Task: inverse folding
């Protein structure tokens, strides 16, 4: 009986001590020129099929989408943009909320989502916190440099 209690306590302590997950939490972006309701609905349905997407809200009057993602997802911004481009629309800057680690990669500041996706950071925060943090910011896509994240807040 004591062995069971010990094993249960050990399991619970491991679960509590586990690091927080890192991932995209919310993405808001526009697809300029998309003013057709059926196109917006089709694109929304395609994005909803990405494993890890919880919901997609279409703001047709602004040609924009607000995408909420489930906890522990492995969705990348690149994947969302690729799905939207498949409908013939380019996407604008993405406003994101995400968790991950601020790191240095190839001599540049970066934000590691710990899901295989790393976003280069436009400007490194003056005193970057260690460990997993939540950020809000804007990610701009450029054909030559890829995604470049400008961080607005770090928690």
Result:
């Amino acid at each position: 009986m004591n062995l069971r209690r010990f094993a249960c306590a050990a399991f619970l302590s491991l679960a509590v001590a586990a690091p927080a997950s890192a991932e995209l939490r919310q993405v808001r972006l526009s697809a300029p020129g998309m003013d057709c309701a059926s196109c917006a609905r089709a694109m929304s349905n395609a994005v909803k099929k990405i494993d890890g997407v919880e919901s997609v809200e279409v703001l047709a009057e602004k040609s924009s989408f607000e995408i909420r993602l489930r906890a522990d997802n492995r969705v990348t911004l690149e994947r969302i943009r690729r799905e939207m481009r498949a409908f013939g629309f380019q996407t604008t800057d993405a406003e994101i909320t995400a968790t991950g680690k601020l790191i240095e990669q190839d001599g540049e500041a970066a934000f590691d989502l710990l899901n295989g996706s790393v976003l280069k950071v436009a400007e490194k925060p003056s005193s970057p916190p260690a460990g997993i943090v939540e950020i809000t910011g804007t990610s701009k896509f450029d054909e030559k440099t890829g995604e470049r994240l400008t961080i607005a807040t770090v928690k």
